[in-house]
Amino acid sequence: MNTSDTQKKWDAIYQKADEGEYAAVRVLQENRHLLPASGSALELACGRAANAIFLAKHGLATTAWDISEVVIEHLKGSPAVEGLGMTFEARDIVQQPPPAASFDVIVVSYFLDRTLIPHIKRALKPSGLIFYQTFTQTYVNEGGPRSRDFRLADNELLRLFDDYQLLVYREEGRVGEIQQGYRNEALIVAQKPASE
Question: Is 103 exposed, middle or buried (0-12, 13-18, 19+ CB in 10 A)?
């Protein structure tokens, strides 16, 4: 699917999406204590930007990018972002990844394009933090993308950031009582080395 087709697909989805309250993902909510007190943050593939709003309310200068012009225009006029000083941009992040050493925090949720990982790593400043949460190929309930290409293999998220300091990792697969715990997804918080 090319950029134009992808944009049209997501524009159509957001034109039909209901209004309402959207919450930041678990990796952010449960690990907010790891966020810096100040600095710059980016949410990639932001959708309704619940994560970006969470970061801005935490005091970070926050940017949110999404391929859908519809959702970006909606966000620019949303009362939820008034007074937060956020920056929004309709942008194909695969074609236009973030510049090197430009953010202290990057958040990605429910989006996976493995070719983007090196760009995300370069875009973080030294000692910067990645907060990442998305679907896994090992799951117990339906939901998320059907294609395995858009789901993480077992421990893949851990391997993608194995050169970072691991702060938080969770992925429970199908071990134990599968109706309990954290299933269907993996999450990570990791810190870029200070010397890079």
Answer: buried
Q: What is the reported pTM? A: 0.92
Side-chain half-sphere CA neighbours of 122 within 13 A: 9
| Whole-angstrom distance, CA of residue 66 vs CA of residue 10 | 9
For domain 3-12+22-191, give the CATH number: 3.40.50.150
As a whole number of angstroms, the distance between CA 93 and CA 172 comes to: 29
Q: What is residue 164's predicted lDDT score, i.e. its pLDDT?
A: 98
Q: What is the DSSP letter of 137?
A: S
CB 87 within 8 A of CB 101: no
The 10s digit of each residue's pLDDT in 20-55 is 668 999 999 999 999 999 999 999 999 999 999 999
**Among residues 52, 72, 69, which one has the least CA distance to residue 9?**
69
The contacts found for 53-62 with CB under 8 angstroms, 24 or more apart, are 53/24, 53/80, 53/81, 53/84, 53/86, 54/24, 54/28, 54/29, 55/28, 55/105, 55/107, 56/81, 56/84, 56/85, 56/86, 57/84, 58/32, 60/35, 60/36, 60/104, 60/105, 61/85, 62/86, 62/87
